[in-house]
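Methods — Computational structure assignment.
A single polypeptide chain was analysed. Its primary sequence is given first, followed by the predicted tertiary structure written as structure tokens.
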Amino acid sequence: MKNYLILETDRKKGKGVDEEGNIHTFDMPAGQLISAWCLRNAATMKGRQDAARTLFGWHQKIPVLISENSQEIWFPTAGEKAEKNTWVRYEGVFSFHKKNEYETLIRLINGTECVIACNVRTVRMQMKRCQQLLDYLSRKKEEDSGHPLKLL
């Protein structure tokens, strides 16, 4: 499996940039890749998103936690019904800024720069959501330490 940092997709195919800056194409939407990564960690993408909806009250563009252990999180820049979408790996973002009203320039941790078709406010909100999710996981881990039988 490639360690992708960003995935651009439509309903049938997509492309991704890996940690070395190489571009790869694939014959499936990014959602299918992300769903498969969740399944490798004994969870479903829908379950991950439903949990985030319940915990945080989010309704749209729900980030997906791939694994609690690695704390890998991906966030979409468009809604589920959008024809085209970009998925961004949270920890792969070095910086971002507004290119124009409809585009954001994201600099990845490997130095690659990508222009994505969404307003910078969307990226800012999604980055904040991912940090909220990580903060929640950190608090849960602290609360659960020393309590091996504690379920909730």
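Note: Residues 140 and 146 are 12 Å apart (CA to CA).
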